Queue: 3 jobs
Job 1
Amino acid sequence: MDAAVPITITRITIAMATPNKGHDARLESVYFWARAFVCLFGLGAVAWGAVVLPEFREQAPLNRITSELLMGRAYKLQTLSDAATQVAAIEQSWFCSPSDFHDEVVLRVAILQSAIAAGDKASVDHAYTPLYDLANTALACSPADPFVWWTLFWIDAAKNGLTPKNANYLRLSYALGPNEGWIGLWRVQLALALFERLPKDLADDATDEFIRLVNTQVLYQEAAAIFSRATPAVQGRLVEQLKTANPVPRQIFARVLYDKGFDVNIAGVDRPARPWQ
């Protein structure tokens, strides 16, 4: 029995060492297609870079400008218009980039706002249609962008008045981005300007958003400026809603309002004595 063991092992060893032409052919085929896949993948990456990277380089100035716009920096209307001309290719691009579309919407909103502030009707008319078309294109690319929905509401309500259709644009903006402070600063000003005509759910969204701005404990001055531009009736509604704000920001915001000369009675806050009292 012991003598048979080496023979068996020898036979197995010989069988393993004997070339299998069919097996080798299959291995060569696998190696060929693997190398071909790697080469094609590499060529595809190079082609993608050749097409897309130039677009990224072109959008770098736009990203910088829009970031500064959202931080509150002001640009001259001509500077904004020149920037829009340089990046207009975004709208015709086959490449759906939500961030690029978002940035261009921010830019064109700033252009329209600057034209309105300057009282330049020709520039307002010239800026309106490109922004409206861009907003719709941007939403086709990224339908969950709350800022673009707010933009569509703003420009449609400005032209056609408040309608059930554009009220839904504002409703979508709140639903998709309820807690984004920088959007809220833009959104709440418009909502409060239309407050008395808003459906109840949107009026509640607007007052709730104002309280969220107060609760950031950062945007007191901005919230006070928004409060100062509201009608007395809307101010009364905001004062009533302030009872839902967190205690510390409510106290601080009340002090900001008192310092600006607003004699309001905010729940849980002692009004300071006036010199004439």
Job 2
Amino acid sequence: MSTDPKLSRTIIFVSGNFFVLHPGHLRLLKFASECGDYLYVGVNDTRPSSDYPSAQERAETLRELNFIHDVTILHDGLENFLHELKPDVIVKGKEYEATRNPEEAWLKNWGGKLLFAAGDAIYSGTSLLRDSHSEQGNIWRKPKEYIERHSCYRENLMPIIDNFRKINVAVVGDLILDEYIQCEALGMSREDPTLVVSPQETKRFLGGAAIVAAHCKSMGASAQFHSVLGNDDLSIWAEEKLAQYGVKSKIKIDESRPTTLKQRYRVGQKTMIRVSHLRQHEISSDIQNQIYSDIESDINNIDCLIFSDFNYGVLPEKLVKRLIKLGRKHKVFLAADSQASSQIGDITRFSGVDLVTPTEYEARISLREPVSGLNIIAQDLINKCMANLAIITLGEAGSLVVDRSLEIDRLPSLNVSPVDISGAGDSMLVGVALAKTLKIDSFKAAYIGAIASAIQVGRLGNTPISALEMQRALA
């Protein structure tokens, strides 16, 4: 390893644009300063327009940080400078871990190593300068190596999305209404350590299995939706919204349960508290039989059946088994997602479906495998669910894709600056299920699902993703 000849200290190197020195930068730089003795920071000599601070101005700002020892402007590019400096360690943000990093090859020349700062929030100085109040996240990553391995090129994927219009989908599961209450923070209570807020605006969205059906319709497929609602005003709003989105709903009313409502109280871009109004008991045998009869009567017109299970009682074990048996008999593509956030779910009870899309946490609790490696988890999941494709979502780290042949690949998240992660899994589920219904290669289907997910997390609240949005994203 190389050290500074004057100071005989280990050199740590970080580089970037640093258009706005935000908390994400500070955490990254502080992490780097603790990895060695001498922190060297490089500032890229580039800026999109004159509205952005110059490289000299950005360098001067960084020099004000007392834990940075030296700052240089990279006039001649990064590679030439690194070969001259020969740092012992290069530190990059966690979001780069799943991408190609040319520094790895350069570091081998002098025995250096590459580290990724773990656990930091992701910010973008460019987006902060452009519009600090924007609801649209638009910092996209393009995973070149994954695209090349699986031929996920625009000209290959555009016709797939266009053919979604040929598919008839049935969705069954828990309908949820999501309310976002935007608040003004008034301060701390003098009586007790409680944050005091004043509600300013309320927005309501379809959620749960309902938005899964709405995504299907908006992406081009014909969609019917089967669920249970309470005898209340919220159920009227939900059915009207489904009709507005073009979803054919076959809703059963259950007097014993109110329509599920989840409220999120937000200040700025942060959710301060969530409040859920719900009942979690199983629907009656009579309502189960009604749902089964509705789907059975139309099964010859259904190409894809999606179970969207939030574990609030709409999909009891008996109904699930009957519907899977029915779907397999009629060669319907079957997909399932069983969420376990504040509730407990088990994706393995959907054994026999073609596609499962759990989070890592959901997969581990279903398999009772808290410590095994992800590859083992993925293989066990495929085997226990008897599925043809499993996509384990990993939050900001993307997803792990494994097909029946046990071929595995890692797909990075495409949007590295999410606004609201609610609904990311729902949109992924729909994108993959529609593509697989068309008998598309699993890894292309996963990429289409990742595009839908990236669009979803780039905005506040669940709104249906259109085929046109997905095609524009490919461009």
Job 3
Amino acid sequence: MERDEALTRLRSARVGRLATLTPEGKPHVVPFVFVVMDRGSATRLYWMVDEKPKRSKELQRLRNIEHQPAVELVVDEYDEDWDTLWWVRARGTARVVVETDERDAALGLLRAKYPQYESTDDPGLIVAIEVESITGWESEAGSAEQE
């Protein structure tokens, strides 16, 4: 899969799986929703710690990013017809967004993609992922992998 096609599929994905590492070096994977922002040759993802009920406000994924900001995520399409399978994986560095203009822009993009965020008056933390590499695979392409 070519990089442009991988980015198109990443942009259109409604949910992904985010992998971080605990301070003990163990993988931690959670589903998450996100948006993609391209600025020239740079690609950045944003996601928000939203108001959905959670066991704790001290989220493991945030502690993990504070300890080790390297992250990886995957989006995919599964079907019983295995000729249509595909996945896209992105690797990058995560950080909590603190700059107001960037935070407002990211929140606007998240609200545009996910109507559930439109009524969020007090959004939680917003996290940016600076994408360093994108890999994709699709069955129809003869199992070709590009980086």
